[in-house]
Amino acid sequence: MEKTPMKFLLSLLLLVSITRATAQDQRDMLIIVSAAGNATYAPEFQRQATTWQNLASQAEISATTFGLGEETKEEDLSLVEKNLTALPKAGGDLWLVLIGHGSFDGRTANFNLRGKDLDPAAFKSLLNPFTRRLIILNLFSASYPFLAPLAGENRIIISSNRSEGERNYSRFGAKFADALTSPAADLDLDGSSSLLEITLHASAATQAFYQDAQRVLQEHAVLDDNGDAFPTPTTAFIGLQAAPSATTPPDGPTAREIYLLNPTSDPLPPVAKAQRAELEASIATLRQNKPNIQEQEYYVQLENLMRKMAEIYQKK
Q1: Which CATH number among 3.40.50.1460, 3.30.230.10, 3.40.50.970, 3.40.1440.10 corresponds to the domain 22-257?
Q2: Which terminus of the chain has a lower count of CB atoms within 10 Å, N or C?
Q3: Which residues contact 212 (CB under 8 A, 6 or more apart)?
Q4: pTM of the complete model
Q5: For residue 223, which of 143, 307, 300, 303 has the smallest C-alpha distance?
């Protein structure tokens, strides 16, 4: 029996490795647009969706859009369900961008699609099988009731609203779309805007809109990237660091390491960036617990964490 040439085996192994790496790195995006409700909103929702589509194309993210164009016999909710069911449950990041109108009557929350609406419980059930990282952007009005049901490990959630009482039309989604391509969103001037930077820039632009219009601020964006369902208001950030909280671990380190477009001038590879995010969260937690720790023990723990941080950069 003729032996398989070693060169062929090596080529086959290389092909398998490339295929696995590609599957792991593949990023997907679902852009889900609500019913316009009023014709005056349709162009703005279309604009936001188009901005996301263009950015996904630049970032080589496979994007599918729902809610635009002519309605079909099959409702948007059914199309979203089928697409989520068919997507790989493991792999690269899955972006879920929800744009437009939501509603909350005090008991029931919905994202208002054409036809049947999407509610938090149904959305949670659809996302339960996924182990890949989920980046859920609830850029719609009355979005806060969706946050707690969807929160969990390996999930980053951004919500236009900080409470169930914020139900009016949200301008945060429009400002978020603007921030995607705004050089001003690069807050740390490293050449690329992270998810955290885009969120903070969009939040500041939203606040400026209400101030310029001399109106009461009706929406307060929040971020949860540690999975505890206790989000941090964007107003709690000083620069790219959340102010210490006495009750909850800090949010922000993971969102700070997520980029739609690369490269960034940050020299660290993705695995090292994830390790850095974990260490930054541990350092922030240690600092907020400082009053409860003996001084010597506090500095021993801090030195240990800082040494681990230095090792990450030494290995790059």
Answers
A1: 3.40.50.1460
A2: N
A3: none
A4: 0.80
A5: 143
